[in-house]
Amino acid sequence: MTEADVTHDAFLGGLLYLLQPRSGYRAGLDAVLLSACVKAKKGQSVLELGCGAGAAILCLGTRVPGLTLVGVERNAGYAALARRNGGELLEVVQADLTELPIELRQRQFDHVLANPPFYDRSASVASDDVAREAARGAETALKDWVKVAAKRLAPKGQMHLIHLAQYLPDILAALPSGIGSVEVLPLAARAGRDPDRVILRARKNGRAAFKLHAPLVLHQGERHETDRPDYTPAVNEVLKSGAALRF
């Protein structure tokens, strides 16, 4: 990508700036909320599957300094942007998550996060933009995302996924044995509306009972009535100051 093909975008209220494609898939709210849910501590290791230009994992690295950050990205253009965005803070591996290099398959991580493509293309229309389609259209099976994420977890490590609420049963069914302490945070656009997304957290060797949290409401009011953002205070703190999001 040339400089004319990218934009320089602020995240976390300007605490982080990222290069993103001017057209194609561009990270937004989902990536920031996913990163805000990860309970990482200085000195721990984090792997993101399908890191794109690095938005989620670098938001996490901005909030929690001192992490070892590794991103896997299949698309060469996005992998190059992630390397530029992360510099020495982010190790980027260009690979398909189902064909990880042996060096990475020999490593384990305290946290693994992923924002898998949402849309089953057997039941929806593909995008004409190749990069956007790769990020939004589900080519790799959801069960493979879950399986690979689970395999890369260190003992007591945590997995975080964000996805459409309608696919929560598929995610739960794909969790392998040995992954427990499952928590689900539904995301509702406005109060009184059904959640359309969920964030799932699970732990390797976890034994706590399944927990379904009250929905996180993203926007204030019944409808969007002005040109200004109308995020709820909790979400605004995440977006503007890099706050953690408590389950």
From TrEMBL:
It comes from the Bacteria. SUPFAM superfamilies: S-adenosyl-L-methionine-dependent methyltransferases. PROSITE patterns: N6_MTASE. GO terms for molecular function: N-methyltransferase activity; nucleic acid binding; S-adenosylmethionine-dependent methyltransferase activity. This is tRNA1(Val) A37 N6-methylase TrmN6. Coiled coil: none annotated. Residues 33-143 form the Methyltransferase small domain. GO terms for biological process: methylation. Keywords: Methyltransferase, S-adenosyl-L-methionine, Transferase.
